[in-house]
Design a protein that fits this description.
Structural class: alpha/beta
Number of helices: 10
Radius of gyration: 17 Å
Oligomer: single chain
Largest sheet: 8 strands, parallel, barrel
Distance between the termini: 13 Å
CATH class: Alpha Beta
CATH topology: TIM Barrel
CATH architecture: Alpha-Beta Barrel
Order of helices and strands: HEHEHEHEHHEHEHEHEH
Amino acid sequence: MRHPQEIARTIDHALLHPALPANDLEAGLDLAREFEVATVCVKPCDVSAAVRGLEGCRTRVCSVVAFPHGNGCTETKVAEAIRAIEQGAAEVDYVINIAAAVAGDFESIRREMCAMRELELSRKVVVKVIFENAYLDDMTRTRLCKIAKTTAISFVKTSTGFASGFDTQHATGANLSDVELMVRECTPICQVKASGGIRTLEKLERFLDAGATRIGTSSTREIMTQVRRRVSG
């Protein structure tokens, strides 16, 4: 049985709703401090406020880049990441060019991932590359994993949680078979983050058991409440 703190340290608490009001951001930061989760994952416009709100806390700030559609050019993604880092973000989750992946343009995906990996090394941050599996088939996911492994980027991530997907299996975000594929193809060079639709302790632990080491969720309080009940009862 995993200890509550062990669970908490796998969580990237997502504060990414496009209409998230300032008071909900503050409440989310308070929640992150309470449970000492790994990171809070925020929009670029909220990085400075998150850094201030988490001062003195173990929880780090993660900014998303080109989120959720991945349509920015590589130079824009790098610039957006640099700005977030300079404002205090310690981790960056960026979305690949999904259309390029679907079209099989893996060379442009590789160049972009190399640029983000160089940024990761030069700025001493953690970068996670979001595949958005909802739009990809297994062959494409496998090719992306091989590119990630070659670049040695820190994390590969399943999804943004905002994609509708091409079928019902993948429409809700993280999928166990996808995580298993990513773990098989990427580890131990890259770690795996499962994100999207993870709202219960049971589901979170299913992904951890499959080999994911980080979980993206906005249901942190519900999950941690379930953890505490299990420990106390």
